[in-house]
Specification:
about 90 residues, mainly alpha, 2 helices, about 0% strand
């Protein structure tokens, strides 16, 4: 009977160790996700900086000019949609 309890104790300890490992790995994975998000935000800031810097400059690299045009088109579309939403709100009053 003592052997059974000893094996059960070892299994319980092993399970506790595994659970602890899983928790620790989860914390590390959460930190990785957070750090990747920080990197993504920094990249967006870099992009915004260059977008604002080069948006009105006609002497921009062709690839950048294409991206700037794409953003400008999307911003114009957003403005149109905002206007439509505002009209709908006003009609509903």
């Amino acid at each position: 009977m003592g052997d059974f309890f000893e094996k059960a104790k070892k299994m319980a300890n092993l399970a506790a160790d595994k659970t602890g490992d899983v928790v620790e790995m989860g914390k590390h994975k959460g930190k990785i996700v957070s750090l990747k998000s920080d990197i993504n935000n920094a990249e967006k800031k870099i992009g915004r900086y260059f977008y604002e810097k080069y948006r009105d400059d006609e002497n921009v690299d062709a690839d950048i000019a294409d991206y700037i045009r794409e953003i400008a088109e999307k911003e114009a579309e957003i403005e149109e949609l905002d206007d439509m939403i505002q009209k709908i709100k006003e009609e509903g009053r």
